[in-house]
Amino acid sequence: MNELQRLAYLQAMDIQPYFPRKVLPGAKPSPHYDIPVAPARVAKPEKAANVAQAKQGIRGAGLAAIDELRSTPESVRKATVTPILQQNKEVAERPDSKTVVEQESTLRFTLRYYRIDDRLVVLDEVPSQGSDQLGRESRKLMQAILKALGCSSAELSMQVEEFSWPVQSGYFMKNSPEVEAARAISGFLQMRQETDGFANLLIFAGQVEELFLQNAPDKTARDFESSKGYHISVTHSLASMLAVPNLKRDVWQHLQPLRKRIDGSSYTLVFIS
Question: What CATH class has 109-262?
Fold first, then answer.
């Protein structure tokens, strides 16, 4: 994945990226990236003077506190400091539900993004252990569906880009894997919408279906308008249709609103694979 693109995904999920400051002995050298650095801010003279004055005040207060502590008998100092240290230790050991907790996500999936034309883009959830044969059959089925929707064969450029979750393994998440995954997908689609300007998003979904339907006005709706202004159509994955051909009938019913927006006709077409 392009490093700038990966950093944009992490920023959309409020994940702080870290980079090595030096090469560790015996470790594999880290790749070098030319990442633009924002120009350093120069403090205004009056602001710098205020900061220096504040630092001087803090230093004076600290010195006064040290002198006061030195004048206190040792027995009193121990009685005062020890409970505070013990309290800090207990707070550090106590789990806080609001702190960032590392979660090894069991939610793993890969989406393939296809830009069909200005009217339509497609997200297809692919099996993690899919074969080349399954990939060819899924592609053939998707082409048949797109033609039935009104996209001519000349428009099927089928340029593909993959999005995998988790973006990287073993990182800290503030929320549940489902919430973080939904935010990551939203950030990915926002960037693609800015570059491709699509009006409709067709999603062939398996386990990620709930991640998209949770934003629908009606949780049972398969076709709805997103908050970004484009329409979303959610249906069964291509792999599931190949495994259970009877699902194609349900899929075609799910896609009727999308077909009307693209093709504008009222007659019914049947796709065969």
Answer: alpha beta
The span from the CA of 263 to the CA of 56, in Å, is: 72
Pick the more confident residue, 241 or 80.
Answer: 241
Domain spans of the chain, in order of start: 45-91, 109-262
Sequence-separated (6 or more) residues with CB below 8 Å from residue 21: none
Closest CA to 20 of 36, 8, 31: 31
Closest to 148 measured CA to CA, from 35, 13, 19, 256: 256
Locate tokens 């249709």: which residue?
241
Output the CA torsion sign for 189, 195, 199, 202: negative
Say what the pLDDT of residue 16 is.
74
Q: Quote the CA–CA distance of 57 and 62 in Å, as a whole number.
A: 9
87: left (phi over 0), alpha (psi -120 to 50) or beta: alpha
Work out the number of other CB atoms within 10 angstroms of the CB of residue 34.
Answer: 7
Strand partners, 173: 101
pLDDT at 252 over 60: yes
Neighbours of 83 (CB within 10 A): 10
In Å, how far from its chain's centre is CA 243?
A: 29
Q: Flag the least confident range among 58-67, 111-120, 245-254.
A: 58-67
**Cα–Cα dist 154/250, whole Å:** 27
200 with 233: CB under 8 angstroms?
A: yes
Confidence of residue 13 (pLDDT cuts 50, 70, 90): confident
Phi and psi at residue 123, to the nearest 5°: -115, 125
Quote the CA–CA distance of 240 and 250 in Å, as a whole number. Answer: 12
CA angle 38, 39, 45 (to 5 degrees): 140
Tell me the whole-structure pTM to 2 decimals. 0.60
The pLDDT, as a whole number, for residue 10 is 75
Distance CA 122, CA 115 (A): 6
